Amino acid sequence: MARARELGITPLIIANRANSPYDNGRTPSSPEGITAFGKFAAAVIEHYDESSVEVLNEYNAGTFNNSACGKSAACYLEVLKEVHQVVKAADPGASVVGPATIGIGNCVQTDGTKCFAPD
What we know:
Elements: H1 2-6, E1 13-15, H2 31-47, E2 52-55, H3 73-90, E3 95-97
């Protein structure tokens, strides 16, 4: 991060993945897992002395999301709301960035509906 700052780059840190004590190590979906993830996101930006964090990465793709809730916008919104609340409590000037998707309409479920943003 120091080198990025030296070069005039403002990094956008991604709070991503899962924590093994919560949700069986899967992408957060339970209230406890989501709360812990919010605390993690706030700690990450504090640790790196940054003021913005992206919430999860490509949530609507199977590559980064193995949530018990699924890949929908509704599932993502629960995580985003909690991260926003916890990060803003720690740093009211911080930016919480989302959604970070692999695409809005390119994921289609077996029943033909889009995975993240329906028509």
